[in-house]
Amino acid sequence: MQALGMIESVSNDITFRNVEPVPARPTARNAFDNSVMHTSRRGNGEAEMNAVVAAALQQSLVRARLALETSRTTTALARLAQALEACSFQDEAVEVAREVFKEASLTSSGELLDPVAVRVALEVVLRAQDLDKTVEIATSLPVDAQTKLLVAAALSDAGNFEKAHELIDQVESEDKEPLLAFILLSERKDKDAIPILRSALRRRPADADSAHNLSVAFLRVGSERKALAAALRATRSAPGRQDISLRYLEMLVTSGHPDAVLTEIERLLEEGVKPVAQFAVLQARASLIDGDYNKAEKYLHVASGLASKAGDDATFAEVSSNLLRLRAVNGRIKRAAAMKQLTKLNDEYPTSSAVVSNIAQMSNRRADLAALRRAFVASKDYIDPERTAYIQYQIASLEGNNVRAAEEATKWLSLEPRNVYAASAAMIALGIGVEDWDAAAAVAQRTFVDERLDPTLLNNAAYVIAMSGHPLRAISMLQPYASSDPVLKATLGLAYLAAGDVHQGMRLYREADKCASTKGHDFRSLMTMHQALVVRQLGLDKSTDPLMLTALSLAPVQLPDDWSQRPEFLRLHAVAEKHGYPWPLSL
Fold first, then answer.
1. How many domains is the chain built from?
2. Has residue 479 been placed in a domain?
3. Is residue 11 part of a domain?
4. Can you tell me the distance from the alpha carbon of 131 to that of 22, in angstroms, rounded to the nearest whole number?
5. Domain-located, residue 29
């Protein structure tokens, strides 16, 4: 574990793209739309096959024109509209499709005489993005239930939820349940969607879309275990669906199940699923969680090759930047060389937020500010709000601007409430940085739910909880784990100081100092600064005998030569400066 006030430097939550779970639209996909993961059998004959298909489409178009000349019916018009669209004559296809609507006739009972032709024509118009005309026809002609569902789905995609509900309400069949749930998910009415999806799955247990959407709903409402179970069900119902398989794997990664990720990918590959770069990326992320950096590096090399071969620039930039950072962390290349290559990568791929995030992760000295600012300015239009807040937090921390760092960390956590790194940043910035201990402790109470979370989070949570007036709670959190870790032991000492037990608190600080030989001079200097600061913040410098305090406290340790470059020292310096405390802090 690193020293207090520092964020872990290999956070894959920050530097890999975490795609938000997207609900699957049930009426918009046939069984083979996404079954593209299995290896193609065409081999080198793909170009020849494409030529054969193009020729066949042209022949179909010729036959469709002849059929219309022979007999002008709505069926012939719909067939021609389809053939024109297949040959990329979209404007003419829409024009012919509109003729279908004009010539559509009704039976004596008021039903369409040729409902299939009308539906085909509607689909052509819909694919041409003429939604207004589609809605007009769907509401003016007695189209069948499936066609209304199709148009309702398109309205939902366009954000017109009110009109989508109007159409779907006209359908009495239970077949509307999957689409109704999809629309509710699109509106972020996740709780309302859950019982509808459960009902749909009772009727059709193998409905992969509904299982996937139930997983999305459960994840959004915070039921992670149920979300994983539903996602697994979706993958087993549609083993060839790339979107569903990748989403399940990413859920396993973000929920901390690395072994399950590796096992699932191995199973998919053994079943003949085509290797894609995203699989190797997820294998690398799983290996990082396990702490196996060598294996993670191997997987990233594989992902880089697959992404390059597929022409996937976004994944290639993401993988290459993470590979550079990982090699620097492992000491395979110097940090300065990695920063230089990352900056070059940012110039080549300015739309990659992952590259900028990796530059931010590598920026641990004030001298890195110029490169980080330059990369951020060049790419900020392409960076999502979560990464933007993280990068802005990092910039503010390097500047020594505690107030702004607290603002950006709070924003980052609000955008990613489940991200433990955002939580740690918020605790550090709100507590140590601006001394808003109640706000920092509120973050700790929300985030630290059990001891399975990482030691850094435990340490930061206990620190701010103790300083917010709850030292006994902090002591109970730290006591089982502090015996062999100097960072946790020092924070346990802080908690005893906050509880008023100066002798025990100082004794634990001294024990932590003895255990810190492997941490080096810089860690001991930082620990001494923290002790001197909290003694003042708790008022112990005024309520305790000065001679006794000096005798019990840690001996002053000289500041590192580069302290003014390092955010963990700059943060303390800003607090000392605000209160007029002497610098360097000591007792």
1. 1
2. yes
3. no
4. 22
5. no
